[in-house]
Amino acid sequence: MSVNHAKNVTRIAIGQELPLICKTISQARMVVYAAATWDFINLHYDADYVRERGFKAPFVDGQMLGAYLTQVVQNWAGPKSFLQKLSFRNRKMVFAGDVLTCGGTVTAVSKEGNVVQVHLDLWVQNQCGESILKPASAQVRIVGGLD
User: Fold this and answer.
1) Where are the domains of the chain?
2) Among 13, 103, 119, 126, which is 20 to 30 Å from 135 by CA?
3) What angle do CA 123, 119, 103 make, to 5 degrees?
């Protein structure tokens, strides 16, 4: 894995697209996330439990999608950034076997010296092109180089 150095803040522009990340959801990934967040609700790992409640299979914890959005933002913004705000609404359930693509677009930029305040529209789609989160947005502060 390479280290993302300071963002060149002079190159951030409205309409700029963030690099995509893709995630294949597995039952193991869902269990690991539950363990990492101490969120062991049966809905996210127990197939019998969820079927008894009318669901087809265990489904992804919505916070996991927020973690993916954070990864999109931080991968793009670099280590000298601070995610100030993240907002999203879940619109569709995600199950093991789904493949998610996550991305975003710069919608507003304000600069003062080498500090930039950036507003982003974010999105997550499944393998069928269906929107999983809507709306989704973030605000990030970046301290960057000028090279």
Assistant:
1) 9-25+62-143
2) 13
3) 25
- Could you tell me where the DSSP H helices lie in the chain? 27-37, 47-52, 62-77
Amino acid at 129: G
Residue 73: exposure state from Cβ atoms within 10 A (0-12, 13-18, ≥19): buried
At 121, phi and psi to the nearest 5?
Answer: -95, 130
Tokens of 123: 């999105």
| 124, 20 Cβ separation under 8 angstroms | no
> Per the structure block, which two tokens stand in for 101?
């693509």
> Tens digits of per-residue pLDDT, 25-77?
998 888 888 888 888 888 888 889 999 999 988 999 989 999 999 999 999 99
Contact 93, 59 (CB under 8 A): yes
The fold for domain 9-25+62-143 equals Thiol Ester Dehydrase; Chain A (3.10.129)
Q: Look up the pTM and report it.
A: 0.88
